[in-house]
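Intended use. Records like the one below are meant for learning the mapping from a protein sequence to its folded structure. Do not use them to infer anything beyond what is encoded.
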Amino acid sequence: MTKIQIKEFNPTDLEKVRQFATTGMQFDKYIENKFALYFYGKIVAEMELKNSTIALGAYLENKLVGFIFARVNFQKLKYSNLKRNLTVNLGNKLINLFDNDDMAKTYDQANQRMLKQFMKNKPDGEVTFFAVDSNIKHQGIGTQLLEALENKLQNQLIYVFTDSNCDYQFYLKRGFKIFDQIDVTLDEKDSTPLTCFLLYKNIL
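Structure written out for the chain above:
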C-alpha cells in the first residue's frame, strides 16, 4: 500500500481544498445554488490559505487527499500575495452584496462570543481549516495531518472552531477539550439546533 506523505501544502491544489471542504464541512447544506456554492467554497479556501502561517497537505501518489491550515501568533502569513488578497477582498464584497441570509452571521456571532472569553487564556494559535477526502476511508489521514501540525506547535495553546455538523469528536479523541458550546438555529425550516464548539489543546 502506498504511504501517505505529509508535506507543505502546494497552493496549486486549492481546487481540491474547495472540494473537500464543501463536502466535509457541509457547505452544500446551506447553499442550494451550485454556482454560489462553488464561488463561496473557492473564496473560503483562498481566504483561509491567505490567513495561514502553516499549511500542510496529505499526498497519496502526489495527489492531495487532505489538508490542515493553521495560524500562529507573530508568524509570517507566508501564503499571502497580491493576487490572493485581491481575490479574497472582491469575493467577500460580492458575498456580502448578494447574501441576504443571516445564517453565516449567526454562526460567526456565536463563535466570536466564545472566542472573546477564551482569549483571556492567551492562545498561541488556531487551527483554521481542516478537511480530508471523504472518498478515502480508514487510512488515518486526519490523524497524520494533526500530528504533523502539533509537531510544529510544541508547548503552545491552540484552539479550533467546529460544530455538530462536523466530526468534532475527532478532536476530543485526540486530546482537545471543550471550552464552550452554543446552540444556534440556522434554518427556520429545520428546528434542530446546530451546536457550535470552541475546542482547545495544550500541546506538550
